[in-house]
Fold this protein.
Amino acid sequence: MATIALVGAGPGGLASAMRLAAAGHRVTIYEAHARAGGRMRGFDAGPYGFDTGPTILQVPRVYDQLFADCGLNREAYVQFRRVSPNTRLRFWDDTMLDLTSDLEAFRAQLAALRPDLPARFDRWYMEHIQKNIVGYEPYLGTPVRSIAGYLKPLELAAALPFRPWESLYQHFWRHFADERVVYALSYPSKYLGMHPTRCSSVFSLIAYLEFADGIWHPVGGFRALAQAMAQAAQDLGVTISCNTPVKRVVTTNGRATGLELASGERVAADLVVVNADFAHGVRHLLDEHDRGRYTDDRLDKLHFSCSTFMIYLGINRRYEDLPHHQLYLSKHILRRDRPYIDDSALDDVDPPFYVCNPTIIDPSNAPDGHSTLFVLVPIPNTRYGVDWAAHEQRYRDLIIERLPMLGYHDVAAHIVSETRYTAQTWQDEFAVHLGAVFNLSHGWTQLGPFRPHIRSDAVRGLYWVGGAVHPGSGLLTILEAAKSTAHFVAQDLAAP
Ligand SMILES: Cc1cc2nc3c(=O)[nH]c(=O)nc-3n(C[C@H](O)[C@H](O)[C@H](O)COP(=O)(O)OP(=O)(O)OC[C@H]3O[C@@H](n4cnc5c(N)ncnc54)[C@H](O)[C@@H]3O)c2cc1C
């Protein structure tokens, strides 16, 4: 049994702590903030409760598996409700499309867009049943291997027919030849930090998994999911010490031996797991000689995702007929030039945006007759130096004016509570490097073995978990990363 010190109670930290404690280790989490959950921690504003980050829960079995692997029943901690439709999209030309797991209803909508689309969708869907088999477990669901480890003839032979070298855009265009369908199915690339023309088509699996398994909402919100994971970790014996910022990882002869807390106290540990945002953690928690190849220079060369402008509204009315997830895809998404392709400048003319309307299926977050709205607009990360003091109010007004495009009429007159985040908020209050909320982007040079490694290359007994490591930045992939962290710890402890 090892003593493990874990920095950060984000989703990756909580999931790793659960697994490590279930494996018999003594785990203590040191979390800087008063509340566990990281970007998922949420907040209250008067009578309203808000989720801060994630609103889309994919592949619930991964959560079930996390709890079950730890000998627990997920449903005893948090309930999930299925959202329907999965997401409603409104396009630049005013057409609409509901992505839904009711495939018959989806085919009918496609037929209204163009008669040949349902048959094309059927071919695409059948192909993805197979792609999921050859892609999910070997590539997403297992610990990352060395580059040579990916050169297995049988695996390669199974994967190559799916043309992983294509971009998401090329992939969906080949299948559908319709810009609306292409962008409807490839929009999750934004959450991978990339435009569909730059993102690998391996991520078409996300669209498939949303059709196949639906999109879900944790009752009480994602902040309730964070609390459920924290409670489960504690039930497994984990100590969570909130309001306890860590100053640095202590190393002795190239091995992690504990932490120095901001208070000056030192805690000894056999192993250290860091769940703080990777680039932030490398810069702030490691001494220069422990950073390995991740020097400032190298971090400057990595590609990070966009950030998000957030408006969290508590309002004294409800929009009963509007779906949980809605996305407006403006014509700017069709552009291939900078800054549209890389979010390197603020789009203050016609930005795409997303609205979540959670109160309708989960009234727990607002008083009777009231509701909350979660408005998200992709914006440049802080590398591109937007002056938010100068832009924030005007940008907020622009987005509020445009809410009717998604059916949210007359919102301004009903606002009781309003909280806003910019890229600077994510950077300063959530300790996210550049405020790049979806972490390192997922281009070929930052995928699989090319992402930062879970098992540190520079320091023995040090592990990283979270959105920056393999397999990637969403909750689903972070939960897979936590499985890999526990795997590497077990492997290293078993080594002579
Ligand atoms: C607006 C938004 C929308 C999103 N939507 C989705 C979605 O719909 N679906 C989805 O799957 N994902 C979504 N994501 C992504 C998801 O939230 C993140 O990928 C995930 O939260 C990252 O988890 P993590 O474990 O890597 O780290 P984090 O959530 O960043 O947690 C890291 C923790 O480490 C702590 N920490 C940092 N430094 C220190 C220190 N020195 N000492 C102690 N503690 C420290 C922090 O306080 C924090 O609690 C969204 C993110 C955002 C911001």
About this structure: Residues 91 and 180 are 7 Å apart (CA to CA).
